[in-house]
Amino acid sequence: MDFGASYVNAGYLSPSHIIPLAAPGVMKKGLKWMLNSSSPLYIKPHLNADFLRWTWAFNKSCSLENVNRGILAIKDIAIEVSS
After folding, report:
1. Quick check: 36 and 42 in contact, CB under 8 A?
2. How far out from the chain centre does Cα 17 lie?
3. Rounded Cα distance, 24 and 60, in Å
4. How confident is the model at residue 15 (pLDDT cuts 50, 70, 90)?
5. In terms of C-beta distances under 8 Å and separation of at least 24 residues, what long-range contacts does 75-80 make, across chains too?
6. Stronger pLDDT, 5 or 38, i.e. the higher one
7. How far is Cα 68 from Cα 19, in angstroms, rounded to an integer?
8. What is the largest CA-CA distance in the chain?
């Protein structure tokens, strides 16, 4: 299985989208979505050690502290790119 970044958005940065994906509550929503084939985040259920490790690490990153730190970094990048 190949995991990678979307090629469609081409790395687009928008000043209006500065909240990191790894935010509190995302894992609960993601788990609900990943089992629904018509959701925006459907993942065909399977056991994969790399995916489980990534999921565990992502879940640990879903903190308000990380969100606040990420907002500052993303905002600075977006402003720099749009200047």
Report:
1. yes
2. 12
3. 10
4. low
5. 75/15, 75/18, 77/13, 78/13, 78/14, 78/15, 78/18, 79/15
6. 38
7. 8
8. 45
Q: How far is CA 14 from CA 19, 37, 59, in A?
A: 11, 28, 24
As a three-state string, the secondary structure of 9-44 is: CCCCCCCCCCCCCCCCCHHHHHHHHCCCCCCCCCCC
What tokens does 75 get?
């905002």
pLDDT tens-digit series, residues 35-77: 888 888 788 777 899 988 988 998 998 999 988 988 888 888 7
Residue 49, pLDDT score: 93
